[in-house]
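Collaboration report, partner site 2.

Our partner group contributed sequences for two proteins of shared interest, and the home lab folded both. The records are reproduced in the order in which they were received, starting with the first partner submission.
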Amino acid sequence: MAKKNMAEVLVNGKIYTIGGYESTEYIQKVANYLNEMETKLAETDSYRNLSVDEKQLLKNMNLADEYFKASEAKERLEQGAEQKDQEIYSLKHDLIDAKMKEDKLTAEIEELNRKLQEEQRKQTRMSQSALKRKLIKPEYRL
């Protein structure tokens, strides 16, 4: 099991000892975030007029809002990644199909080239044979 870490943090002017399984640096980062949120809210006039409970409720609402927005963004990113994975799979499949067609067409071209060469050799032999016959037979003139 992971080691539990303890960290002293300053939140809203008070020192707290916080324990958790995250690193002490992370615990400090969370405390700093809470302090930044408090500082930002304290800059507004209306926040200063709220009771302690109302201030805490406002901070909780802001945190929940950020959490839900981050969760929605994460979901959109995951859906986008899944869609990209499906597109990649489809493109790979299309690439394999195209390669198979290319191989088939290449084989057909090679076969046609072989037949063409064979026909050219036949033509050459026939031409040579006809030339030989013409040379062998004397011409008859009337």
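Second partner submission, folded after the first:
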Amino acid sequence: MSWVADVLLIFSLGEVWADYMEPVEADETGESVEEPLPLRNINAWLSENNWRSLNRLDEYVDTGKPMQSRVYGGAYNFLKISEFIEVVKAQPWQEPQNVQLLIQNEPDDRFTLYALPAYAGS
């Protein structure tokens, strides 16, 4: 038996790049860290619960210009949706107002948008 939830996580480039194209996080060589801390934490939670990491989707767009946001997604069997939403909203986002989480549970006809400011308690 299967019960699949489709997940899209969209956030601004501000999670990766600060002002003047300086990386928010850099490795030991000064290069930008491709996956920001919130995403690494979300993927760690998924892994701890025996799901695979979210896949980066925006890099597959080939229309002449790069997307101006980061888009990640996945399809998960029996995803603990309420827990997942809490994990996403608990992350130290640089620009939480620019984070969007879309989830379509198997019986739903469309995605539901979860915008972080609606959940942010801080």
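Feedback sent to the partner group on the second submission included the following. The longest strand covers residues 4-12. The CA atoms of residues 89 and 116 lie 6 Å apart.
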